[in-house]
Amino acid sequence: MTLPIARTCPFDPPAELRDKPAVSRLRFADGTLGWMVTTHAESRTVLTDPRFSARGELVRSPIRPVMQPAAPGAFAFMDPPDHTHYRKLLTGQFTVRRMRILEPRIEQITKELLDAMTPPTDLVQAFALPLPSRVICELLGVPYTDHEFFEQKSHDMVDPKGSHESRGAAGEELFGYLHQLVQAKRAAPDDALISGLLGQLDDVELTGMAIMLLFAGHETTANMLGLGTFALLQHPEQLAKLHDDVDAAVEELLRYLSIVQYEVNRTALADVELGGEVIKKGETVLVSLPAANRDKFERPDELDVTRSTAGHLAFGHGVHQCLGQQLARIEMRVGFSALFTRFPTLRLAVDPADVPLNVERGIYGVASLPVTW
Q1: Is the residue at 2 inside a domain?
Q2: 160 prior amide bond cis, ω within 30
Q3: Could you tell me which of 98, 194, 358, 359 has the fewest CB atoms within 10 Å of its CB?
Q4: What CATH number has the domain bearing residue 184?
Q5: Which residue range forms the structural domain that includes residue 319?
Q6: What pLDDT is attached to residue 92?
Q7: What is the edge-to-edge ordering of all strands in the sheet holding 370-372?
Q8: Would 10 be classed as within a structural domain?
Q9: How far apart, in whole angstroms, are the C-alpha atoms of residue 227 and residue 247?
Q10: For residue 37, which phi and psi values (nearest 5 degrees)?
Q11: CB-CB neighbours of 198 under 10 Å
Q12: Is the pTM above the cut of 0.70?
């Protein structure tokens, strides 16, 4: 199999993924054969077994042909002990308690964005993207006035349609911007996260970490807010239950949509038996989170905001489980609740079939969501 594959339903993983055995062959973008895992149990194994590596120079992608080492500080693409060293510096910044302290500010930003909306509008540009973008900017200490620049460069860095050169150029521009910002913080520190790490990391490490956090902090949640709104509008019986338990609804949307589709890849450091197959040393495995999250649960293809979703893998699993998951949960809980409270008659302004989808990107979602009310 070669990815990406078109979807017949905007909310379901491609049927071809789920028709495969637990472990099946996959051709990566550089032409190399590897593997894809589509079941919950095998996915957890890959994400926890230390014989599988996340190191950038070892891991292939199904949509980008070039492998490269992680930038200093970009610990998501490292293994322990390097990963442990960097991640430990941030653990206290993303605790449940710390995120709850931020909640009133998230509510205020949400209200400001909703106040500014007039029908019809593109919900992605008016709400889904600026909400997490503003929040992560304030958390890191990045000027939101520059949001168009870093949002575009973040997009270009991972655009599967772009060339290796264009992706690299976007990364260099974003690095240059944040490196200058880090140097400015050294001259005049503030109380945001970047300044708080000045004594523990050098400028290059802190810049690499900031790029990773800035990208992860707005790209994923923005796609969940946009695609999640689309899903709720298409399932009015579930939308009617949203306010009964918005936390449960958020977890079910995470499970049901599982937007991280091509970015969870690991490479075997030794021969590993998995699901009846032998993964040879040096072969890369794609963990298909969308498929895995449809494997464990009863009636998995139904959106049911009242179900128990314990054990879903939308934020990954193991030592690389998403560091910012509590922040993402609060942004979604506040965002969905406020949006549908403020605009109870919210509806699509186009035919559902005309909503553009980012099928080829590693993070799946809607490119735009025209709505009115």
Answers
A1: no
A2: no
A3: 98
A4: 1.10.630.10
A5: 15-372
A6: 84
A7: 121-122, 370-372, 347-348
A8: no
A9: 17
A10: -110, 130
A11: 14
A12: yes
